[in-house]
Design a protein that fits this description.
single chain, mainly alpha, rod-shaped
């Protein structure tokens, strides 16, 4: 646990990890409470810049996932509308052909 604190202190404030907010490595030999204490120590001892970067990173991931979901829904809706329009145009063409055939 002390090594995590030393690493955090040695890290420059401008240098913040963008891949993961947590740098704590779970110790397989430690108990659940010891690992929890290590994670809490890391959280409490993190700088405000690290918290801000982590928050921003998580919000970016959330907005990215939401925008993908919205885009997928819009694509489905557009495809459904296009299919309805094509179907309606085909019906109009068939009706026109039938009317032309009936009038001759």
């Amino acid at each position: 646990m002390d090594t995590n604190k030393i690493q955090a202190e040695n890290q420059e404030e401008g240098e913040v990890s963008t891949t993961s907010c947590s740098k704590y490595v779970k110790d397989d030999n430690a108990t659940f409470l010891e690992n929890l204490k290590g994670q809490m120590d890391e959280f409490v001892n993190a700088s405000m810049e690290e918290h801000k970067a982590c928050f921003k990173h998580n919000m970016d991931k959330i907005f990215e996932e939401v925008s993908k979901a919205v885009s997928a829904v819009k694509n489905v809706e557009v495809n459904q509308v296009c299919q309805k329009v094509v179907s309606a145009v085909k019906n109009v063409e068939v009706n026109q052909v039938n009317q032309t055939a009936d009038s001759t």
